[in-house]
Structures are given as structure tokens and as C-alpha cells.
């Protein structure tokens, strides 16, 4: 399939939550399931593609399993490599470690003083959980210990820690903060490198080899930086894109433009780090409803050019979350139009990404799967 093809055939819709979905992640290889975290304070486990899928769109209203313990919105979810555990964080300032099969919590850590926005597994056999909070700290928790205190706390950030990515091959933790800094902690060497972006950072993601880091900021740009010296390798998001039917979207001659100035919108590498995928915000107060739409954009890493753009539809305020399943060739995107919040999952030959929350008043949540 050509790199420019961007399939959009709906095969599965998940309507299991009673509120907006703030986080979505595929289970670890082969990515058969999806975990979603919502403002309804629950985490749901659902099958990504129904076993009886016939190619026609189906809808599911009940998850396989519900995980309920949070007292406030769930803002992030991460899955262990063995698929036996996952961790979740949210507005109740707590970090939960769950047993997938038993449906209950294994650990509950309460060391943060504000909402927790990001969480990742780390360490050998995913024995450590890393959490980032609006209290400006990053905590490291020992999954094998009964201690309720973190084994390490990183305090360099001066504002909310909005995003984390653990890169175990280089024993490092990349973090993004609203203070406009990307900090990469080398755990073995005890060294921290800092790149100044001068705009609030909403997303960080290391490349597979660990040599580059992808950074989204609220100036409407996504930058790929060299981890060794902070050099700008490529920038995405400064352009508009015209209609190109081969890229899988049609909007007459109205341009779609990447925008990100207010909300936390995360971006990721995809398909052997060849593509960057991200959602975007709608333009406020525009008289051109088509051009003002939020959309999902895919860029070629080498050229920086848009290879696909999928409009979110009129009235959608933002596409804030995305998640990629390498084995299944699917991607997920979270859409919000002020009335409901949902996710799309589409297979593509060359792209994709990971998640984030939007705080708005909405009444239903859903996940849609496309092929």
C-alpha cells in the first residue's frame, strides 16, 4: 500500500464510557485490545477488532472488563509488556497499578500533591512506574516493594509535567513540561540534558533508536530534535495542505491547517519512525467551516511534508489523542465536538501515535475502529 494511502473504513465503534475518553492505549504485542481511561473515572478493556468482524461496521456498548477505583478523571494509562498489568493516573493525585485478569489494584501510590498527567513503565520486567504531575515532580515507584514512598523524585520542572516517555535501551526518561523545557534524564549516568522550546510542551516521544525526540508545543509546531546536541532535525505543522484524493481526504479546495495553541495534543513516531502523526485543534471564529476543522495529520519524517490529512468534521473542537498498533496496522485518534468524545482506529501502511485529555462538558464517550 502506498505511503499516501490513508484508509478510513469504519469497522468497530466502542461506546462504553459515560464521559469523555482522556487516554487510550493498545495492549502490548500483538495489540489485540485497547485500554481507555475516561472522565467517568473508569478504565475499560475492550477488543480492538471484533472476532466476528465481517468487514462491516459494528458497535459495542459494554467493555470486556471495567476497572473502577479512581475518584476523579483518569488522565493516562500505560500497559506492561506482559499484558498482565497496567497503570493509570488522574485527577485524584494517585498512581494505580492494576492486575488485568483479577480486575483490582495491586498498588496505590499517593505521593503527588496535584493531578497526575502522565505515566509510564520502566526498569527490568517493568518493575518501576514513572509518573509526572501538575505538582511539577516526577516520581519513580518500585512495583515490587510495599513502600508507599517513591524510590526517586525528580524536581527540575518548574510547571506541570505533561508528558513522559521512557526509553529503556538508553536507560533514559524524557519529560515535557509547561515550563517550555524538554528534560532527558540519563538514569545510569545521573545526568540531565535540557532543551528550551520557549513554549509549553504537551508531548514528548523518543525515536526507537533513542537518537531523536519528538516534541509538541503550544505554538502550533511539532519538532524533531537530536538528543545529543538539541539540534533541530525537522519541523512539522507550519503548513496548510490542499486536497489530494490519493492521501485519502476530500475537502474541495479548502485548506486544512495544523493548529495547537490551547490543548494538550500528543504526537508520536510511527511505522519504523518514518512518519509523525498528530491531531489538531479547530480554528475558532472562522467563517470557513471546512478550513477551520480539526484534523489528523501525517507527515513524512525525512521531507517534513504532509502525506495525509483526515478532517474531523464540522463542530469537532480537537483531535487530541492518538495511538498506534504496529502489528495490527491500526491507529487511534480522540475527537471532541463538545457533545461527545470518541476514538478512531485505522490501519495504514506508513504511520501513527498516542493520546491526551480535553476538559470539556460532554456526555458520552466512544471508540471507533476503522480499516
Automatic annotation (TrEMBL):
<keyword id="KW-0812">Transmembrane</keyword>
<dbReference type="InterPro" id="IPR015943">
    <property type="entry name" value="WD40/YVTN_repeat-like_dom_sf"/>
</dbReference>
<dbReference type="InterPro" id="IPR001680">
    <property type="entry name" value="WD40_rpt"/>
</dbReference>
<feature type="repeat" description="WD">
    <location>
        <begin position="109"/>
        <end position="142"/>
    </location>
</feature>
<dbReference type="Pfam" id="PF00400">
    <property type="entry name" value="WD40"/>
</dbReference>
<dbReference type="InterPro" id="IPR036322">
    <property type="entry name" value="WD40_repeat_dom_sf"/>
</dbReference>
<dbReference type="GO" id="GO:0000398">
    <property type="term" value="P:mRNA splicing, via spliceosome"/>
</dbReference>
<keyword id="KW-0963">Cytoplasm</keyword>
<protein>
    <submittedName>
        <fullName>WD40 repeat-like protein</fullName>
    </submittedName>
</protein>
<feature type="transmembrane region" description="Helical">
    <location>
        <begin position="340"/>
        <end position="367"/>
    </location>
</feature>
<dbReference type="GO" id="GO:0071013">
    <property type="term" value="C:catalytic step 2 spliceosome"/>
</dbReference>
<dbReference type="InterPro" id="IPR051980">
    <property type="entry name" value="WD_repeat_MORG1"/>
</dbReference>
<feature type="repeat" description="WD">
    <location>
        <begin position="154"/>
        <end position="195"/>
    </location>
</feature>
<dbReference type="GO" id="GO:0005737">
    <property type="term" value="C:cytoplasm"/>
</dbReference>
<keyword id="KW-0472">Membrane</keyword>
<feature type="repeat" description="WD">
    <location>
        <begin position="67"/>
        <end position="108"/>
    </location>
</feature>
<keyword id="KW-0677">Repeat</keyword>
<keyword id="KW-0853">WD repeat</keyword>
<keyword id="KW-1133">Transmembrane helix</keyword>
<dbReference type="InterPro" id="IPR020472">
    <property type="entry name" value="WD40_PAC1"/>
</dbReference>
<comment type="similarity">
    <text>Belongs to the WD repeat MORG1 family.</text>
</comment>
